[in-house]
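Service request form, structural biology core

Requester: graduate student, group of Dr. S.
Request type: structure prediction, single chain
Budget code: on file
Notes: please return the result as structure tokens.

Sequence provided:
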Amino acid sequence: MKKLDLYIIRKFLGTFFYAIALLAVIIIIFDISEKIDDFLERKPPLEAIIFQYYANFIPYFINLFSALFTFIAVIFFTSKLAANTEIVAILNSGVSFRRMLRPYLISSLFLALMSFGLTNFVIPETSKNMQEFQKKYLKSQRKANMNNIHMQISPGVFAYVESFDMKNKSGYRFSLEGYHEGGMDYKLSSDYLRWDSITGMWKIENWVKRQIQESGEIITRGQQFDTLLNLRPEDFAVDVDDAIYMNYRELRDFIDAEKMRGSGNLMKFQIEKHKRIAFPFATIVLTLIGVSLSSRKVRGGIGFNLGVGITICFAFILFMQVTTVFATFGNLPPVVAVWIPNFIFGLLGIYLLRVAPK
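Core staff response, request fulfilled:
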């Protein structure tokens, strides 16, 4: 049985990594053709292009397509086994269908753990290296200005800025409000604020402060003062794409901080956190479906099985996108939105296993 297990594992993983390698080459060729003008203009060293950019670029795309190519690999090589009557021979030798699934599950578990490690630990680090290269040699795509930003920077303290310029690290029409259980304590309004990177303080200019006390309201004004706030310029430019630079622990801590601030992007970050566990698990679900579909010898051969399998795989991806939209813009909890495709297609996989030829 060890020979059979090793045979299936070698076929499974060999097909997967061969397909992923071909995909990586194709992606790199298209990316080079897209960025060739920037490379010629900025003239980055060849070593930086290879080792700082593309060496860190490949893990992200390998992980992005890992579930799809796991499914395709299972469909492809299992269909070949069925077409060559190898599965019939395996079952006729006394090996049960359930026992034959063991090397498939071992391989899919290995790929799921690989995807989990890439998503939560490797890709955040490689993405930081790639970002440094992009900042230095490629044109930045990051927004320079943000508008109408409102957040809670500490319990009971809310900050608002009408417009913030990331390039100059300055904001316009800034206000800071403090509350307690009885209502508002104070409100600070200013026309302009600017970050001082040397002192780590904010310069508040042309300000008015209203302090509400039991004896009445006290209004003070001034031209400029420096202050410490639980706020940095990067906090005004929070984007869900920034999650790629965080490992799982950093993302979890970031979500806790964003909950306190009342971030409008909180739901998207929560979806990203749950995806980092659910997406690797999808590898196992799709493997079960793939084995069930392709273990039967059909008249259409490998092409028919691949067509049906790819249709199911894209249906899975589409369903995950739909449930994600419901979580982002509706009331569906993020954990349900991310895991419900695995649950439904897992039931489909169990049904297909029951009706598969044994």
